[in-house]
Here is the input.
Amino acid sequence: MASAPIILVFDSGLGGLTVFREIAKARPDARYVYVADDAYFPYGSHSEAKLVGRVCALLGELIATHRPDLVVLACNTASTLVLPTLRSRFSVPFVGTVPAIKPACAHSQSKRVTVLGTHATVSREYTRALIREFANESEVVLVGSAHLAQFAEAELHGMPVADDLIAQEIAPCFIEDGARRTDTVVLACTHYPLLLQRLEGLARWPVNFIDPAAAIARRVIDLTGAPTGGEAPIPARAVFTSARRPSERLAAALARFGIGA
Here is the structure.
C-alpha cells in the first residue's frame, strides 16, 4: 500500500460523509475522493438487479479514473448486496458497511436491540444472517425507514424537516415489555448519524445509538497501515454523479467535513 494511499469513499448520497470523517481522522495523510451517486439516490427505490448493475459499472469507471488503493463502500444498502461481486471483479481492496449487530447485542443490557435502516437493508438475508449469528440471546427488531435518509440529505442542504416527521420514523424502534425495554439502536444507514443529535432529542427514552463509522476507520487502518506523518495531503474533493453543482449551503456543509466541492 502506498505511503499516502488514495482512498475512494463511495455512497448513494451524503451519508458516507459520517464514515469519511472518521477515516480522515485515522489517516489524515491519505488522499481522498468522495463520490456521491446522487443521480441514483435513494438506492432503496431501485431493484436489486438494477443496483448490482449500476454500482458495479460505476465503480469500475471510478477505479479506472482515480486509481484508488482502497475503496470504502460507505452504504449499507449497497454493501449488503454488492460487496461479494465487487471483490470478485476488482483487485483493489474494499471495505464495506454492514449493520453493527454484533457489538450492539454484545453490549445491550436489556437484550432488546433495534436495527434501524432502509427497507432494503433490513429486508436482506445478509442482515438476518448477522442476527442469527450474533444476537447473543438478544431480541432484535428490524425497523425499516422510508424517509430518514432523505431527511438527512435535506438537513445538509439547509432544509431541516420538522421534529414530528423524524419522530414518526423512529417511533417503532422503542419497545417496552414490562421491566425490559429497548436500550440499543443500530444505525444501519450511514445517513442516520447526520441526524444523531435530533434522534437523541426525539427518542422516547435514552438509548445507545450505534454508529459503525469508527469501526470502519479501524478496518481502513488495518488495511492501509498507520499514518506516515508525511506532508499535508491534497484536500479531499467530492464527485457527484448527477454533475449538479452543490448549492452554497451544501458546499459549506462539505467544507465542515473537510471536502471541497
User: Anything to note?
Assistant: Residues 27 and 227 are 5 Å apart (CA to CA).
